[in-house]
Write a structure and sequence with these properties.
homodimer, 313 residues, alpha+beta, Arylsulfatase, C-terminal domain, four-stranded antiparallel beta sheet, NAP-like_sf (chains A, B), NAP_family (chains A, B)
């Protein structure tokens, strides 16, 4: 095992690449199977949850630390007052041009004092860039904040405006032009002065990427190349290495929710599927369960402060 | 939605319980499908990996923080010198009395200066206790350390000896007798004086539970009761709540690797399946890949310190 020549090591590396893409395909197949198998159960669950007041607010109250760290007290208040449902969909599950890993978080809200929207949906696209990035990108979602109620302190609006301005520039390598946009400059400046300020969870709706935005077209092209390389490796042919990533650090200058795909994934892959377990862990639920002989339901629920600010829908 | 009576809330809670067990069943089914679908690929992978020196040492070098925190420099040295393979099996995948979630980590080592064993296998049983614990338990594995080479500083031996003494006590509620065992007292004392000392990763072979040990018999009984309750709920009958957990904190007095199931799960569910990705992230691999035109393989590999201490098998 120690005596191995450079040519042989190279051959082993090519074999590993082939296996890696087989494993990737098998993983995608599992995501598809799981989604199909679980969909009817989650549909039934949604119907039951809809009849339990504050279900999702109580789940978010029990968030794992990686999500909880992004939820400010004012966000919890919004969840408690008006979050009606959360749904997770894999909207590209059967789309050969997309990825089964892509997912959307769809929040439904009762009428409230904060924003006009009754649905806020954030899509995370699993894409591949031509320079080797594999991960989630997203398009900023506009939240129609009511006057003086913007919990993101202007960040979701700024991200959305920059996005629109970038779209007007059109395709191609317009990075230099992007950086000259007034929307770019003002957001970058705001981000710089905001360093260290805790931002609202709702800012996640402005998230773009932990790398840079990758279009559907670029991703399809990159996957086609990857597939061709993978075929070549399978046939034992040599494949040119992908170049190293560009220095894309400056894209994070205008990222309003750096690393936003991480908590989003945790919500989609842990909190949402395991929501009943999170709900059961809630002190309110436990309080209710333990004391239900002694107290009417209203008693237990109302004693918990979260419960006092709910607007019936 | 806000106007909901106590009886209705109760009914909704029962419905959630039924759904929770349906989701659990669907999850187990996915684990089975995944295992079957992936097994042949991982078998091929093992054959390729066996020809790449230090593959697993390089993977462990890239451990995520939750695992890395348990790996001391002396552990890395053992991995670099003699870890030959790592395999993960779900040994109860088709056992109706067991659980598809149970898994084993099987490490294979070249002859080395530290211990006599060529295989160290640690089994994590997914079990349920009669008082409501659901999680992993394990039996201490004896490591035959060579003289003066015990990286766990006596902890794996002490855990194994206590385990053997407990087995001799036989079944039944012998907790009081257990606590009177000299093996219990000496391990508890050692644990107390060891507080704050970093222990070797190899101590994980002495891990028992984050709760207390749960036997296969207790687990089968607990699952039978849970199944009956679940049937009752499905029929709309009321079910007695399980009692609250006993105060089992004192079991942690003799747990040599508290929370050991967490890094074990990460190894089984993340590092092992994604090993090729971890391997590719290694600086040694990158060094090799980038400089392969300029340097012979030996050059790049040997320049990396990890590579200097490998004993050919």
């Amino acid at each position: 095992m120690a005596d191995i020549g450079p040519e042989e090591i190279l051959a082993r590396f090519e074999e590993l690449s082939v296996l890696e893409s087989e494993i990737e395909q098998a993983e995608l197949e599992i995501i598809r199977t799981q989604y199909t198998l679980h969909a009817p159960i989650y549909k039934k669950r949604a119907a039951v949850i809809a009849k339990i007041p504050h279900f999702w607010a109580l789940v978010f109250e029990q968030s794992p630390p990686e999500v909880d760290t992004y939820i400010q007290p004012s966000d919890s208040k919004v969840f408690a007052e008006c979050l009606e449902s959360l749904d997770v969909t894999r909207f590209e599950i059967d789309d050969p041009k997309g990825s089964p890993k892509s997912f959307a978080l769809r929040f439904t809200f009762a009428p409230n004092d904060y924003f006009e929207d009754s649905v806020l949906e954030k899509k995370f696209y699993y894409r591949r860039s031509l320079d080797g990035f594999d991960g989630f990108v997203s398009e900023p979602v506009k939240i129609h904040w009511k006057k003086g109620k913007d919990l993101s302190d202007g960040l979701t609006d700024a991200a959305y405006k920059l996005w629109q301005a970038q779209q007007k520039l059109g395709n191609g390598d317009n990075r230099a032009a992007e950086k000259r946009l007034p929307e770019y400059k003002s957001l970058a400046k705001k981000m710089e002065s905001d360093v260290g300020v805790s931002t609202s969870f709702f800012t996640i709706f402005g998230f773009v990427s932990s790398f840079r935005y990758v279009s559907a077209e670029e991703s399809q092209k990159a996957r086609k190349i990857e597939k061709e390389n993978s075929e070549k490796r399978r046939r034992g042919e040599k494949v040119e290495d992908e170049g190293p990533n560009d220095d894309d650090e400056d894209y994070q200058e205008t990222e309003v929710f750096p690393g936003g795909d991480e908590p989003a994934m945790l919500i989609a892959e842990d909190m949402w599927p395991a929501a009943i377990r999170y709900f059961s862990k809630s002190p309110s639920t436990a309080l209710y369960t333990r004391e239900r002989q002694a107290n009417p339901i209203g008693g237990a629920f109302q004693r918990f402060p979260l419960m006092t600010c709910f607007h019936p829908s």
